[in-house]
Amino acid sequence: MTTPGLPLRQLLMSLGEPLVELQTAPAGLDVPVRDVAILDPEDTPTAGPGELVLAIGARGRAALPALRAAGRAKAAAVAVKLDSPGQADALREAAAEAGVALLSVRRETRWEHLDALARALIAGPTAPEAAEQGAGDLFSLAQTVAVLTHGIVSVEDTSSRVLAYSRSSDSDEVDDLRRLSILGWQGPEPYLSKLREWGVFQHLRTSDAVIEIAEHPELGIRRRLAIGIRAGAQPLGTIWVQEGAQPLADQAEQALVGAARVAAGQLVRRRRELSADVRLTQTLVTGLLEGSTGPQSLATHLGLGLRRPALVLAYAADAPSEGSDLELTRAEVTGLISVHTAARHRSALLAPIESRVYVLLPELPPDLPTATLRGWAQEVVAAAREHLGVRLRAAIGPVVESLARVPDSRAQADRILDAMGRGRVAPQVAALLDVQAEVLVSEVLALLQEHAELRDPRLTALAEYDRRHGTRLAESVLAWLDALGEVRVAADALHIHPNTLRYRVRRAEQVTGIDLAQPQQRLLAMLQLRLPAEDT
């Protein structure tokens, strides 16, 4: 079912001049915007009907292919950054010819911030929800509060990220903190430090009352009122009102109290929807990793490119110490992996499966070095040991060319973790190319361990002879083989005299009837004698 979308006019009214400016709209402003698409420079220019295409990295004329592709696909608009005002002329002409709206984005704006705000607006409340809420979505609420307070309003989450803001007709009224916050950057640190020092953030987390923050001209900060958005004792965010060219209204505090209560209901609903979305995402990721669900569902749900490089990181933890809560430890480890990975790759997707945690990294840069991935995994392993006291092992699956091949990357990562679990791979973080020989030997040993019929019964008899007589013939033969027949090297490793080693090797041949002069026999002995003594 096709969503009706948000009229381009309404999207522009909500985002406003702080982020985007309309350059041309050949099809008018009532064109519905149904989704947001991110077009990286490496992507083949594509678009979908009704999409707002963010042409990341394609400044100026480099965005022409994106404009033409958007026109062919009947996209709603294309957003680009301009290096100079003169670049707009050629782009406006191309946009008019393609029949697609052109938006210019301020150079300081963070693309991910614009993406999040646009998606939030497009996925805003349905008509029944808007009627029930009275104030509509958060942008409408911010605009309403601005009218009631005579101020400039922003709504933020608990991490001080701007969720919505009011429009301002005069940019001179906006101070540095407001401007930087809307563009997606953190406010001036000296001012934020003052807020922490004055206990403003603590007040907003714990109180329902409005707090006033005085003007600080030396920091470029004007007077503000703020209130916490709370659901019971749970903080959800804050509403800030900056004083502009005119003083704040007498009833500004009362308006903020009401707005905080309305916003609480909206944010609670948003959290519930997000929770449901997270569960669906995890189900789709798990299905893809296990091969039970194709890639199309996940790609459609998250807007991922089907034919972009991807890989899987896999983590496994040692058994928790005695007395530890297994479920709590697993949850803490999963949370730690999630935070560290998201800091390195914004599209990372987690899926705990049984005792392991898998991280799918979709849409990787084609030239991302394995050393970089190894560094990311090592950060996680070190943090788990330092903060949780948990020893993690990490395996780096190979890069695959599309989402459809993700199960292959997971399978390779599992092979490495399996070898680590059998004690055959020493590093805590490894890719298959780093430890291919160790992994293959480990898998051959696992095969010998599971299938007794594949073993040489004479070598099994040698291990049994050692158990009955308290000798070390099998160990000595293996050391001699590992040293490629260098008696002194093997004897030194066992801390015995070379003649003792020669005697033991001859005795092993006599006891079992094996002929170590034969290459095939030596190869089988090198493998089978590596099995645990009870399985040899």
Whole-number mean pLDDT: 82
CATH class wording of the largest domain: Alpha Beta
Q: What's the helical proportion of residues?
A: 40-55%
> By CATH's scheme, which homologous superfamily of the largest domain applies?
Reverse transcriptase/Diguanylate cyclase domain
Domain CdaR GGDEF-like: 297-418
Protein name: PucR family transcriptional regulator
Domain PucR C-terminal helix-turn-helix: 473-531
Family: Belongs to the CdaR family.
Describe this structure in words.
- With 536 residues, the chain is α+β, with helices and mostly antiparallel strands.
- It contains 20 helices and 17 strands.
- It has helices at 8-15, 64-72, 87-98, 111-122, 127-133, 138-149, 176-182, 189-197, 200-206, 252-290, 295-302, 326-344, 370-388, 406-421, 436-450, 457-469, 473-482, 487-494, 498-512, 519-528; strands at residues 6-7, 20-24, 32-33, 35-39, 51-55, 77-81, 101-105, 151-157, 162-165, 211-213, 224-231, 234-243, 311-317, 349-353, 356-361, 392-396, 429-431.
- The strands form four sheets. Strands 2-7-6-5-4 form a five-stranded mixed sheet, sandwiched between helices.
- Strand 16 (392-396), helix 14 and strand 17 form a beta-alpha-beta unit.
- Mean pLDDT is 82; it is low at 126-136.
- This is PucR family transcriptional regulator.
- Belongs to the CdaR family.
- It comes from Kitasatospora paranensis.
